[in-house]
Amino acid sequence: MKILETIDFQHRELLLEMFNQLNLPISDYTFANIFLFRSISHYEFLKTDCGLFISGCNRQGQNYIMPLNDLRKCEQQTFEILLDKQNFFFPIPEEWLSFFPEDKFVITCDESESDYIYLTEKMASFKGNQYNRHRNHLNQFFSAYNPRTEAIADNNAQQAMTILQTWQNDSGMELNKTDFEQCREALDKFSALDLWGTIYYIDNEPAGFILGEALNTETFVLHFAKASKKYHGIYEFMFNDTAKRLLPQYKFLNLEEDMGNKNLRRTKGSYGPEVLLKKYRVSLIPFSDHR
Fold it and tell me: Which regions in the chain score pLDDT beneath 70?
Protein backbone atom coordinates (compact mmCIF):
# COMPACT_ATOMS: atom_id res chain seq x y z
CA MET A 1 0.00 0.00 0.00
CA LYS A 2 1.31 3.42 -0.95
CA ILE A 3 -0.02 6.90 -0.19
CA LEU A 4 0.16 8.86 -3.44
CA GLU A 5 -1.07 12.40 -2.85
CA THR A 6 -3.76 14.60 -1.41
CA ILE A 7 -6.85 14.80 -3.59
CA ASP A 8 -7.45 18.08 -5.40
CA PHE A 9 -9.11 19.47 -8.51
CA GLN A 10 -6.50 17.96 -10.83
CA HIS A 11 -7.99 14.52 -10.07
CA ARG A 12 -11.48 15.41 -11.30
CA GLU A 13 -11.46 13.47 -14.58
CA LEU A 14 -9.96 10.37 -12.96
CA LEU A 15 -12.55 10.30 -10.17
CA LEU A 16 -15.44 11.06 -12.51
CA GLU A 17 -14.49 8.05 -14.61
CA MET A 18 -14.15 5.76 -11.60
CA PHE A 19 -17.44 6.90 -10.04
CA ASN A 20 -19.18 6.44 -13.38
CA GLN A 21 -17.92 2.85 -13.58
CA LEU A 22 -19.14 2.10 -10.04
CA ASN A 23 -22.57 3.62 -10.86
CA LEU A 24 -23.67 3.68 -7.21
CA PRO A 25 -26.65 5.68 -5.81
CA ILE A 26 -24.60 6.68 -2.73
CA SER A 27 -24.09 10.45 -2.41
CA ASP A 28 -20.46 10.17 -1.29
CA TYR A 29 -19.46 8.98 -4.76
CA THR A 30 -19.40 12.36 -6.51
CA PHE A 31 -16.36 14.46 -7.27
CA ALA A 32 -17.99 17.59 -5.82
CA ASN A 33 -18.46 15.92 -2.43
CA ILE A 34 -14.88 14.65 -2.40
CA PHE A 35 -13.40 17.96 -3.54
CA LEU A 36 -15.48 20.32 -1.40
CA PHE A 37 -14.91 18.33 1.80
CA ARG A 38 -11.28 17.41 1.06
CA SER A 39 -9.84 19.55 3.87
CA ILE A 40 -12.26 18.33 6.55
CA SER A 41 -11.94 14.68 5.55
CA HIS A 42 -8.21 14.78 4.69
CA TYR A 43 -8.73 12.77 1.51
CA GLU A 44 -5.69 11.02 0.06
CA PHE A 45 -5.20 8.42 -2.67
CA LEU A 46 -3.97 4.95 -1.71
CA LYS A 47 -2.48 2.66 -4.35
CA THR A 48 -2.76 -1.11 -3.91
CA ASP A 49 -2.54 -4.26 -6.02
CA CYS A 50 -6.32 -3.93 -6.42
CA GLY A 51 -6.15 -0.35 -7.72
CA LEU A 52 -6.84 3.01 -6.12
CA PHE A 53 -8.63 3.74 -2.86
CA ILE A 54 -9.28 6.95 -0.93
CA SER A 55 -8.38 7.31 2.73
CA GLY A 56 -10.42 9.76 4.74
CA CYS A 57 -11.41 10.83 8.22
CA ASN A 58 -15.05 11.20 9.32
CA ARG A 59 -16.60 13.75 11.67
CA GLN A 60 -15.94 11.43 14.64
CA GLY A 61 -12.23 11.42 13.83
CA GLN A 62 -12.30 7.82 12.61
CA ASN A 63 -10.18 6.71 9.67
CA TYR A 64 -11.86 4.91 6.78
CA ILE A 65 -11.05 3.59 3.32
CA MET A 66 -13.31 4.49 0.40
CA PRO A 67 -13.24 2.00 -2.50
CA LEU A 68 -12.89 3.32 -6.02
CA ASN A 69 -13.54 -0.06 -7.59
CA ASP A 70 -15.73 -3.08 -6.92
CA LEU A 71 -14.22 -4.79 -3.86
CA ARG A 72 -15.64 -8.12 -5.00
CA LYS A 73 -12.80 -8.19 -7.54
CA CYS A 74 -10.08 -7.82 -4.90
CA GLU A 75 -8.03 -10.47 -3.12
CA GLN A 76 -8.70 -10.93 0.61
CA GLN A 77 -5.02 -10.19 1.25
CA THR A 78 -5.59 -6.63 0.01
CA PHE A 79 -8.17 -6.12 2.75
CA GLU A 80 -5.74 -7.23 5.43
CA ILE A 81 -3.18 -4.74 4.13
CA LEU A 82 -5.66 -1.87 4.00
CA LEU A 83 -7.52 -2.53 7.22
CA ASP A 84 -5.86 -2.38 10.61
CA LYS A 85 -7.31 -1.99 14.10
CA GLN A 86 -8.67 1.46 13.25
CA ASN A 87 -9.48 1.49 9.53
CA PHE A 88 -12.72 0.29 7.97
CA PHE A 89 -14.19 0.33 4.47
CA PHE A 90 -16.90 2.97 3.98
CA PRO A 91 -19.32 3.57 2.36
CA ILE A 92 -20.10 0.03 1.20
CA PRO A 93 -23.35 -0.69 -0.69
CA GLU A 94 -25.56 -3.51 0.52
CA GLU A 95 -25.06 -5.53 -2.68
CA TRP A 96 -21.35 -5.95 -1.83
CA LEU A 97 -21.86 -7.35 1.66
CA SER A 98 -22.12 -10.99 0.66
CA PHE A 99 -18.47 -10.85 -0.32
CA PHE A 100 -17.36 -10.35 3.30
CA PRO A 101 -17.49 -13.62 5.32
CA GLU A 102 -18.98 -13.16 8.80
CA ASP A 103 -16.13 -15.07 10.38
CA LYS A 104 -13.59 -12.53 9.12
CA PHE A 105 -15.40 -9.19 8.97
CA VAL A 106 -17.57 -6.98 11.14
CA ILE A 107 -20.36 -5.23 9.23
CA THR A 108 -22.17 -2.27 10.80
CA CYS A 109 -24.06 0.84 9.75
CA ASP A 110 -24.93 4.15 11.38
CA GLU A 111 -28.44 5.41 10.61
CA SER A 112 -27.21 9.01 10.62
CA GLU A 113 -25.02 8.17 7.60
CA SER A 114 -27.91 6.82 5.49
CA ASP A 115 -28.95 8.74 2.37
CA TYR A 116 -32.55 9.95 2.04
CA ILE A 117 -33.92 8.79 -1.32
CA TYR A 118 -37.18 10.24 -2.72
CA LEU A 119 -39.27 9.60 -5.80
CA THR A 120 -38.93 12.74 -7.90
CA GLU A 121 -42.55 12.38 -9.00
CA LYS A 122 -43.84 12.53 -5.42
CA MET A 123 -41.70 15.55 -4.56
CA ALA A 124 -42.97 17.27 -7.71
CA SER A 125 -46.65 16.66 -6.92
CA PHE A 126 -46.85 16.79 -3.10
CA LYS A 127 -49.85 14.44 -3.37
CA GLY A 128 -51.10 12.37 -0.43
CA ASN A 129 -51.47 12.76 3.32
CA GLN A 130 -47.70 12.66 3.76
CA TYR A 131 -47.50 16.11 2.17
CA ASN A 132 -50.47 17.85 3.82
CA ARG A 133 -48.30 20.22 5.84
CA HIS A 134 -45.96 20.90 2.92
CA ARG A 135 -48.88 21.61 0.57
CA ASN A 136 -50.27 24.09 3.11
CA HIS A 137 -46.90 25.83 3.39
CA LEU A 138 -46.57 25.89 -0.40
CA ASN A 139 -50.04 27.42 -0.81
CA GLN A 140 -49.24 30.04 1.83
CA PHE A 141 -46.01 30.81 0.02
CA PHE A 142 -47.76 31.39 -3.30
CA SER A 143 -50.42 33.51 -1.57
CA ALA A 144 -47.74 35.80 -0.17
CA TYR A 145 -45.08 35.83 -2.90
CA ASN A 146 -44.59 35.83 -6.65
CA PRO A 147 -41.23 34.07 -7.05
CA ARG A 148 -38.96 34.27 -10.06
CA THR A 149 -36.29 31.73 -10.97
CA GLU A 150 -32.98 31.74 -12.83
CA ALA A 151 -30.50 28.99 -13.54
CA ILE A 152 -27.34 29.58 -11.51
CA ALA A 153 -24.50 30.73 -13.73
CA ASP A 154 -21.31 32.75 -13.40
CA ASN A 155 -23.23 36.01 -13.82
CA ASN A 156 -25.51 35.49 -10.79
CA ALA A 157 -23.45 33.24 -8.51
CA GLN A 158 -22.54 36.26 -6.40
CA GLN A 159 -26.23 36.79 -5.62
CA ALA A 160 -26.36 33.22 -4.38
CA MET A 161 -23.40 34.09 -2.16
CA THR A 162 -25.54 36.82 -0.61
CA ILE A 163 -28.21 34.24 0.21
CA LEU A 164 -25.59 31.94 1.68
CA GLN A 165 -24.34 34.69 3.98
CA THR A 166 -27.91 35.45 5.07
CA TRP A 167 -28.49 31.76 5.77
CA GLN A 168 -25.29 31.60 7.81
CA ASN A 169 -26.29 34.66 9.83
CA ASP A 170 -29.76 33.19 10.42
CA SER A 171 -28.23 29.94 11.69
CA GLY A 172 -26.58 31.63 14.66
CA MET A 173 -23.72 29.12 14.45
CA GLU A 174 -20.00 29.55 13.91
CA LEU A 175 -18.63 29.01 10.41
CA ASN A 176 -16.86 25.79 11.35
CA LYS A 177 -20.16 24.33 12.60
CA THR A 178 -21.95 24.66 9.24
CA ASP A 179 -21.19 23.82 5.61
CA PHE A 180 -20.83 27.52 4.73
CA GLU A 181 -17.26 27.24 3.40
CA GLN A 182 -18.02 24.16 1.31
CA CYS A 183 -21.10 25.80 -0.19
CA ARG A 184 -19.20 29.03 -0.83
CA GLU A 185 -16.54 27.12 -2.76
CA ALA A 186 -19.23 25.23 -4.69
CA LEU A 187 -20.66 28.55 -5.83
CA ASP A 188 -17.22 29.95 -6.57
CA LYS A 189 -16.33 26.91 -8.72
CA PHE A 190 -19.86 26.26 -9.97
CA SER A 191 -18.95 25.93 -13.66
CA ALA A 192 -15.68 24.07 -13.09
CA LEU A 193 -17.47 21.49 -10.91
CA ASP A 194 -20.20 21.15 -13.53
CA LEU A 195 -22.95 21.63 -10.96
CA TRP A 196 -26.60 22.39 -11.68
CA GLY A 197 -28.69 24.83 -9.68
CA THR A 198 -31.47 27.36 -9.47
CA ILE A 199 -31.60 30.71 -7.72
CA TYR A 200 -34.97 32.01 -6.51
CA TYR A 201 -35.97 35.67 -6.32
CA ILE A 202 -38.79 37.35 -4.44
CA ASP A 203 -39.53 40.99 -5.32
CA ASN A 204 -36.30 40.84 -7.36
CA GLU A 205 -34.32 40.06 -4.21
CA PRO A 206 -32.30 36.81 -4.09
CA ALA A 207 -34.14 34.60 -1.58
CA GLY A 208 -32.87 31.03 -1.96
CA PHE A 209 -31.00 28.54 -4.10
CA ILE A 210 -30.43 24.83 -4.66
CA LEU A 211 -27.25 23.16 -5.93
CA GLY A 212 -26.72 19.59 -7.06
CA GLU A 213 -25.55 17.21 -9.75
CA ALA A 214 -26.35 13.90 -11.41
CA LEU A 215 -25.32 10.93 -9.27
CA ASN A 216 -26.07 8.34 -11.94
CA THR A 217 -28.47 7.95 -14.86
CA GLU A 218 -31.60 7.87 -12.67
CA THR A 219 -30.61 9.72 -9.48
CA PHE A 220 -29.89 13.40 -8.87
CA VAL A 221 -28.23 14.46 -5.62
CA LEU A 222 -28.97 17.80 -3.97
CA HIS A 223 -25.83 19.03 -2.21
CA PHE A 224 -27.01 22.40 -0.89
CA ALA A 225 -30.38 24.12 -0.29
CA LYS A 226 -30.09 27.56 1.30
CA ALA A 227 -32.68 30.29 1.81
CA SER A 228 -33.60 33.24 3.98
CA LYS A 229 -35.87 32.12 6.79
CA LYS A 230 -38.04 35.23 6.44
CA TYR A 231 -39.86 33.67 3.48
CA HIS A 232 -42.29 31.16 4.96
CA GLY A 233 -42.63 28.07 2.78
CA ILE A 234 -39.64 28.81 0.57
CA TYR A 235 -37.99 25.42 1.15
CA GLU A 236 -41.18 23.58 0.17
CA PHE A 237 -41.29 25.72 -2.95
CA MET A 238 -37.63 25.12 -3.84
CA PHE A 239 -37.82 21.33 -3.40
CA ASN A 240 -41.11 21.13 -5.29
CA ASP A 241 -39.86 23.32 -8.12
CA THR A 242 -36.55 21.44 -8.35
CA ALA A 243 -38.35 18.11 -8.55
CA LYS A 244 -40.54 19.40 -11.38
CA ARG A 245 -37.47 20.53 -13.30
CA LEU A 246 -35.68 17.21 -12.82
CA LEU A 247 -38.67 14.89 -13.23
CA PRO A 248 -38.32 14.29 -16.97
CA GLN A 249 -34.81 12.90 -16.54
CA TYR A 250 -34.35 11.56 -13.00
CA LYS A 251 -36.51 9.04 -11.16
CA PHE A 252 -34.95 9.64 -7.75
CA LEU A 253 -33.69 12.54 -5.65
CA ASN A 254 -30.96 11.94 -3.09
CA LEU A 255 -30.95 14.51 -0.26
CA GLU A 256 -27.87 12.99 1.39
CA GLU A 257 -27.62 12.14 5.09
CA ASP A 258 -28.78 13.88 8.27
CA MET A 259 -25.43 13.56 10.11
CA GLY A 260 -27.26 12.86 13.36
CA ASN A 261 -28.82 16.34 13.34
CA LYS A 262 -32.32 15.96 14.83
CA ASN A 263 -33.74 18.94 12.94
CA LEU A 264 -32.40 17.65 9.63
CA ARG A 265 -33.72 14.18 10.40
CA ARG A 266 -37.18 15.52 11.18
CA THR A 267 -37.24 17.75 8.08
CA LYS A 268 -35.95 15.13 5.65
CA GLY A 269 -38.25 12.49 7.12
CA SER A 270 -41.27 14.75 6.65
CA TYR A 271 -40.88 14.66 2.86
CA GLY A 272 -41.57 10.92 2.78
CA PRO A 273 -38.38 9.22 1.61
CA GLU A 274 -38.88 6.02 -0.36
CA VAL A 275 -35.91 4.51 1.39
CA LEU A 276 -33.11 5.34 3.79
CA LEU A 277 -30.16 4.04 1.80
CA LYS A 278 -27.80 2.38 4.26
CA LYS A 279 -24.06 2.85 3.85
CA TYR A 280 -22.13 0.10 5.55
CA ARG A 281 -18.85 -0.04 7.42
CA VAL A 282 -16.75 -3.17 6.99
CA SER A 283 -13.80 -3.92 9.26
CA LEU A 284 -11.68 -6.96 10.03
CA ILE A 285 -12.45 -9.02 13.10
CA PRO A 286 -9.41 -8.65 15.40
CA PHE A 287 -7.19 -11.69 15.13
CA SER A 288 -7.64 -12.45 18.83
CA ASP A 289 -11.38 -12.80 18.24
CA HIS A 290 -11.05 -15.46 15.56
CA ARG A 291 -12.13 -18.90 16.63
Answer: 1-2, 85, 287-291
Region at 182 (left for phi over 0; alpha for psi -120 to 50; beta for the rest): alpha
- Are 273 and 118 a contacting pair, CB within 8 Å? yes
Task: Quote the crossing angle between the two packed helices 180-188 and 157-171, to the nearest 10°.
Answer: 180
* Residue 161 and residue 112 in contact, taking contact as beta carbons nearer than 8 Å: no
Residues 222 and 21: their CA atoms lie apart, in Å, by 21
Are the beta carbons of 186 and 32 closer than 8 angstroms?
yes
| Residue 274 burial (CB count, 10 A) | 13
Fold (CATH) for 2-113+278-289:
Aminopeptidase (3.40.630)
pLDDT (tens digit per residue) in 113-137: 999 999 999 999 999 999 999 999 9
Q: How many CA atoms lie within 13 A of 21 on its CB side?
A: 11
Q: Name the superfamily (CATH) of residues 115-256.
A: Gcn5-related N-acetyltransferase (GNAT) (3.40.630.30)
